[in-house]
């Protein structure tokens, strides 16, 4: 268990350390890059090697498992579920985004046979980025909420573009395109909205996560070997979040210029998001992040092991102390 206190960690050398940080290229990544632009990492003697992961949280977990990255920022439910299932190669460090995530449920624009989420009881092949990803896990939560039990068929599509093609019945281009036709998929609302406006896909429902939406995680190896660097990283991220909160216009410009959003949608999103502005400075909110998430995942049959087994795994791999 990582028990180093904030006041015990201070840079003692000017040697620049490198951390490999995996992120999903969506609006939520903005404070990470503000921290880079404002020189906060460099002031903490850190060089950050950013690894873009459009495939989602399932891919982030694989990268951590293989020690291909040191840090990953992804969806709460994906990491809590994987740790609870017995993955001992990752550590959940703290909350990154405190507000819930609004998942939109989408299908193809010309799928006239599907008009609402209840229709998925009949047309129920769900597109997901990867098994174990947020889009996969939240399909169980949606099915449970709707009284379906669970969806039994999944089309693994790897990324958002393939998911959109999948529900529009666009045939894969070549043998390695990596997806099958599906009936619906779930993705973050504001990331989907541009494609609603363009009538490429249509929205048939939505669901909020009942927990804070994003977390910062580390590989077990990095957590053991790079405690100082991890402390410096989260300190820099805190500064990036503070900069974001005080420069909303600049955030909107950055998102509209560098990511796949209109300025109008970016501004609307900034009104809904609440980042954790004390990452690593206060203990993780165990009830919201661990207990509540685990209870919902158990109800949705994502987690099926005994309570004692699940609790032990989470106790060992989710930090309860400051970073």
Description of the structure:
- This protein is an alpha/beta fold and 323 residues long.
- The chain has helices at residues 30-37, 40-43, 57-65, 76-84, 134-146, 160-167, 189-197, 220-225, 227-246, 248-258, 263-270, 286-299, 307-317; strands at 17-23, 46-52, 71-75, 90-97, 102-108, 125-128, 153-156, 184-188, 201-208, 214-219.
- The protein folds into 2 domains: 17-99 and 211-316, D-Maltodextrin-Binding Protein, domain 2; 102-210, Periplasmic binding protein-like II (D-Maltodextrin-Binding Protein, domain 2).
Instruction: Indicate the structural class.
Output: alpha/beta
User: So what's the CATH class of the largest domain?
Assistant: Alpha Beta
Supply the number of helical segments.
13
Count every beta strand, where a strand is a DSSP E run of 2 or more residues.
10
Any idea how many domains?
Answer: 2
- Please provide the ordered H/E string of secondary-structure elements: EHHEHEHEEEHEHEHEEHHHHHH
Order of neighbouring strands in the sheet with most strands = 2-1-3-10-4
Strand content: 15-25%
CATH topology term of the largest domain? D-Maltodextrin-Binding Protein, domain 2
First-residue to last-residue Cα separation: 11 Å
What is the CATH homologous superfamily assignment of the largest domain?
Periplasmic binding protein-like II
Rg is 20 Å
| Unreliable stretches | 1-13
Which architecture of the largest domain does the CATH hierarchy give at level 2?
A: 3-Layer(aba) Sandwich
**General form:** globular
Summed over residues and divided by their number, the pLDDT gives a mean of 92
Helix fraction by DSSP (H/I, runs of at least 4): 40-55%
Mind summarizing the main beta sheet? 5 strands, mixed
Query: What quaternary form is this?
Result: single chain
């Amino acid at each position: 268990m990582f028990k180093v206190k904030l006041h015990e960690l201070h840079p003692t050398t000017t040697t620049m350390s490198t951390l490999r940080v995996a992120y999903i290229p969506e609006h939520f990544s903005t404070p990470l890059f503000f921290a880079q632009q404002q020189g906060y990492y460099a002031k903490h003697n850190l060089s950050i090697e950013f690894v873009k992961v459009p495939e989602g949280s399932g891919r982030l977990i694989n990268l951590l498992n293989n020690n291909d990255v040191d840090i990953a920022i992804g969806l709460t439910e994906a990491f809590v579920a994987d740790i609870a299932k017995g993955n001992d190669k990752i550590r959940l460090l703290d909350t990154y985004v405190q507000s819930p995530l609004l998942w939109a449920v989408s299908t193809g624009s010309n799928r006239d046979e599907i008009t609402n989420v209840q229709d998925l009881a009949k047309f129920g092949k769900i597109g997901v980025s990867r098994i174990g990803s947020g889009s996969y896990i939240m399909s169980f939560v949606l099915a449970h909420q709707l009284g379906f039990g669970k969806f039994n068929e999944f089309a693994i599509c790897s990324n958002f573009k393939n998911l959109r093609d999948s529900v529009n019945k666009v045939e894969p281009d070549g043998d390695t395109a990596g997806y099958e036709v599906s009936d619906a998929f779930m993705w973050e609302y504001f990331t989907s909205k541009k494609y609603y406006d363009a009538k490429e896909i249509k929205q048939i429902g939505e669901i909020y996560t009942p927990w804070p939406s994003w977390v910062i995680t580390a590989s077990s190896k990095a957590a053991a070997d790079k405690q100082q660097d991890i402390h410096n990283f989260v300190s820099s991220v805190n500064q990036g979040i503070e900069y974001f909160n005080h420069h909303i216009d600049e955030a909107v410009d950055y998102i509209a210029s560098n990511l796949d959003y209109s300025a109008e949608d970016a501004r609307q999103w900034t009104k809904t998001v609440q980042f954790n502005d004390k990452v690593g400075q206060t203990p993780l909110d165990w009830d919201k992040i661990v207990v509540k998430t685990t209870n919902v995942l158990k109800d949705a049959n994502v987690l099926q092991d005994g309570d004692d087994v699940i609790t032990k795994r989470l106790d060992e791999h989710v930090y309860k102390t400051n970073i």
